[in-house]
Design a protein that fits this description.
Chain A is α/β, with parallel strands linked by helices. Chain A has helices spanning about 45-50, 75-80, 100-105, 110-125, 140-155, 170-185, 200-205, 225-235, 295-305, 325-330, 350-365, 375-385, 405-415, 435-450, 460-465, 490-495, and strands at about 5-15, 20-30, 35-40, 60-65, 70, 85, 160-165, 190-195, 205-210, 215-220, 255-260, 270-280, 285-290, 315, 320, 335, 365-370, 370, 420-425, 455, 470-475, 480, 485. Chain B has about 300 residues and is mainly α. Chain B has one domain: ABC transporter involved in vitamin B12 uptake, BtuC (Orthogonal Bundle). The chains are: A alpha/beta (about 525), B mainly alpha (about 300). Chain B: It is found in: Cell membrane.
Chain lengths: ~525, ~300
């Protein structure tokens, strides 16, 4: 008999209507243990964690804290016990300072000076450098996450829950975070680590609980299993990985960018500096990079939402389109799947038929002489729904009623259905479950095989390394030369993402710079 | 010298109602609520202050009643926009129209009646000093109160926990709620403060600045106050500066009219403060000072879960 577990959840069930988000889940985490909670979107991870943190109340089951049965009916109660949580989406106030942000999250007010001192101490102890008086707006994503972690650590928790903390970090920042987490665990704090990045889990965690459809399917030691085995457990079937043979680029470039300069817009805009890029027919070129390094500007310039200074800066099948708007470019054969589905890729309150018209009327002839052709549009929407297995209430359903993954499949289908010469796609599988992501990846590969040029912007390195033939990195508005995939290993890309310009010439191994 | 002193002495009371009303609006906007009803609330404050003072003979009751009446009006606005989540711009405009009409109705019987001006707080000795005496030590209590309130508001917003929570509600209501802070309650209180301050500004107009009641006597000062908040980029210190600048402008145009500097119709001079307001707003927008705008300003917030 070992000592009592730090946290033990027994027989936890929680239903929303007829949907069982958690069914009879047991979870046990020991002091100093770093345990992973694994599962696909919708497997019940968030629900379980929200119950542990007092955000949701379970329908059945009991929670033991250090061997004693407790009721956790609010986040405040959870914090009082010693449970801290770092959320995936930061709840930070950009115009306020680090100190003010931390103060807002405290249960017991503390004088500013003493608090600043404590922040400095905690951040020093755990290698999380932070200046309490800096404004959050001036900080990088990695630094913002440090605030959340420091905020949680100030309460001296004995269990820290981390919800997908690495989705916004560079590989180097991930390493730093892992060092910190190991140090925290060594001091006796347990860590429950939620993620679907299996390689990271294998590097960090000593145990893992895998959830599928609200139930525990297995408890395992991730270091003893391959990522592939664990993925299969999460999904329930063997995943058919889309593997793509590298295609040597052939023929003339279909999409070409030549020396594109574009000033940044707004206070946090990033200026694009002399971007050079060519995407050939049959090729997928990936652009990696941390958000906020010019992705928004590059997408706006490529889609036509912002005009380039000179027409010849962007060529579509050889034609200068730099100063054409999105409609003209679509007419010439360009398709575009933006990062934001609702509100950019689709109009939420409007039906799928209307959304099909809005995106495809030029190429699919869904309008003529100013009049809409509803019959054709309906057929088009139905064809997309069928071909991409979009789960929805029919073509008349409003776009906003679809889940993220299904709406993404619809938008992807709408664009691919136009038989584009060039497809520009951003974050195609963000927040999409594994099955839908695999379908989207297959569609992209198929489109490339049919001769289209595809430009893929993604923050997910795994995705880029699976799909892209060549990979370039966007950092502070500059685009690196595109590396063939076999030369684009994680470490090299990570260095480029962090702004190490020598990473291309020196062969790997150079000292990783601390990302600013 | 006499001219200059007289000008400076006139600027202070001209700036005071702008400062009072704008301070209230500033707090409301920092909490994330845009209340375009300042003009209407000022008018209701002006007429209530005047009517109660004339009826009861007590200026203190008058001022208190003015603040209460405008705060009640603001409560209606808060209920519409915060509880029922009506559009803030439309509700604010409606509030101005309602306030203007209600003030005219209440004030119908009081037009042309005399009232005793608020007493000046003469400081023995100091008030008799040449130039400095009448300039600094011979105004009524509301003038000093407006400056004290500006200082207090600045301290409250930047140095207290409650002020920090209020700013958080204006920057990101969702996050503030997630951290367990009462967004709706905070916004209610901020809007009520805004109403009371507009009422105070109105009472100053009808009891001190021009001690009488006439319809629409605020003459657009509520709108200038709104512009001042933007001009000050939501900071109380700059607000004092802006209020005195605009106060000075409105007095300057009176001088220009009297002296007949140019052969222009007097209406042209009367227009200047408003033209400058528009100009300032344009300049500020060009300078992209938008980052100073509370990020949740004007957005309804519904607490889920």
């Amino acid at each position: 008999m070992s000592a009592a577990a730090r946290l033990e959840m027994a027989g936890i069930s929680k239903s929303f209507g007829s949907f069982a988000a958690n069914a009879d889940i047991d979870l046990k985490i020991a002091p100093s243990e770093i345990q992973a909670l694994l599962g696909e979107n919708g497997a019940g991870k968030s629900t379980l964690v929200k119950i542990a943190y007092g955000v949701l109340a379970p329908d059945a089951g009991s929670i033991l804290w250090n061997g004693r049965e407790v009721r956790i009916d609010s986040p405040r109660a959870a914090r009082a016990l010693g449970i801290g949580m770092v959320f995936q989406h930061f709840s930070l106030f950009e115009p306020l300072t680090v100190l003010e942000n931390v103060a807002l999250g405290l249960d017991r007010p503390e004088p500013a000076r003493a608090l600043a001192e404590r922040i400095r101490r905690v951040s020093k102890t755990y290698g999380l450098p932070l200046d309490p008086n800096q404004r959050v707006a001036d900080l990088s994503t990695g630094e913002r996450q440090r605030i959340e972690i420091v905020r949680a650590l100030l309460a001296e928790p004995s269990l820290l829950i981390m919800d997908e903390p690495t989705s916004v970090l560079t590989p180097q920042e991930v390493q730093t975070l892992f060092d910190t987490l190991r140090r925290i665990a060594a001091d006796g704090c347990s860590i429950l680590y939620i993620s679907h990045k299996l390689e990271e889990v294998r590097a960090l965690c000593s145990s893992a609980t895998v959830l599928r459809r609200g139930r525990v399917v297995e408890r395992l030691d991730p270091r003893e299993r391959s990522a592939r085995e664990i993925a299969a457990l999460m999904v329930g079937t063997e995943l058919v990985e889309s593997v793509r043979a590298a295609v040597p680029s052939q023929g003339p470039a279909r999409l070409e960018v030549r020396g594109l300069d574009l000033p940044g817009q707004g206070t946090h805009g990033v200026a694009l500096k002399a971007i050079d890029l060519a995407v050939h027919g049959g090729e997928i070129v990936g652009i990696a990079g941390i958000a906020g390094n010019g992705q928004a500007e590059l997408l706006a310039a490529l889609s036509g939402e912002r005009r380039s200074p000179r027409p010849g800066m962007i060529l579509l099948d050889g034609a200068p389109v730099g100063q054409l708007g999105p409609t003209s470019r679509r007419r010439l054969g360009q398709a575009y799947v933006p990062e934001e589905r609702n509100g950019h890729g689709a109009v939420g309150p409007m039906s799928l038929v209307d959304n099909a018209i809005l995106g495809a009327w030029q190429r699919a002839a869904l309008a003529a002489r100013g009049w809409l052709r509803h019959g054709r549009a309906r057929l088009y929407a139905e064809a997309v729904i069928q071909a991409f297995d979009v789960r929805c209430g029919g073509p008349g359903a409003p776009a906003a009623s679809l889940s993220g993954g299904n709406l993404q499949k619809f938008i992807m289908g709408r664009e691919i259905g136009q038989d584009p010469a060039v497809l520009i796609v951003a974050q195609p599988t963000w927040g999409v479950d594994a099955a839908a992501a695999a379908a989207i990846h297959r569609a992209l590969i198929e489109l490339a095989e049919n001769g289209a040029a595809i430009l893929l912007l993604s923050q997910d390195l795994d995705e880029i390394l699976t799909l892209a033939d060549r990979v370039a990195v966007l950092n502070e508005g500059s685009l690196s030369p595109a590396l063939p995939r076999d030369q684009a290993d994680r470490e090299r890309l990570g260095l480029l993402m962090g702004g190490a310009h020598g990473a291309l010439s020196t062969d790997g191994r150079s000292e990783a710079p601390v990302a600013a | 010298m006499d001219q200059v002193t007289a000008f400076l002495i006139a600027v202070i009371p001209a700036a005071t109602p702008l400062l009072l009303a704008a301070l209230g609006e500033l707090v409301s906007e920092r909490a994330g609520v845009l209340n375009l009803g300042v003009e209407g609330m000022m008018l209701v404050g002006a007429v209530t202050g005047f009517a109660v003072t004339v009826t009861t003979g007590s200026a203190i009751s008058g001022v208190g009643a003015a603040m209460l009446a405008s705060a009640i009006l603001a409560l209606g606005f808060a209920f519409l926009t915060l509880t029922l989540m009506a559009n803030q711009v439309a509700s604010g405009l409606a509030l101005t129209i309602l306030g203007t009409g209600a003030a005219a109705l209440i004030g119908a019987g009081f037009v042309g009646m005399p009232v005793e001006r608020l007493p000046h707080l003469d400081v023995p000795g100091l008030s008799d000093l040449p130039v400095v005496g009448p300039l600094l030590f011979a105004h009524d209590a509301l003038v000093y109160l407006s400056l004290i309130l500006a200082l207090a508001t600045g301290l409250f917003l930047n140095r207290t926990r409650a002020g920090l929570i209020l700013r958080a509600c204006g920057e990101d209501a969702g996050s503030a709620h997630a951290l367990g802070h009462p967004v709706i309650l905070t916004r209610y209180l901020a809007v009520l403060f805004g109403g009371a301050m507009a009422g105070l500004a109105g009472a100053f107009l009808s009891l001190s600045y021009t001690p009488m009641w006439s319809e629409a006597m605020t003459a657009g000062r509520g709108w200038i106050a709104l512009a001042l908040v933007v001009f000050a980029s939501w900071r109380p210190g700059r607000l004092v500066l802006g209020a005195y600048l605009f106060g000075g402008l409105s007095i300057l145009q009176l001088y220009a009219q009297n002296m007949g500097i140019l052969a222009l119709p007097s209406q042209v001079f009367a227009m200047t403060p408003y033209l400058v307001t528009i100009l300032v707003l344009i300049l500020i927008s060009l300078r992209r000072a938008r980052s100073a705008t509370p990020a949740s300003l004007g957005q309804s917030f519904r607490a889920t879960q």
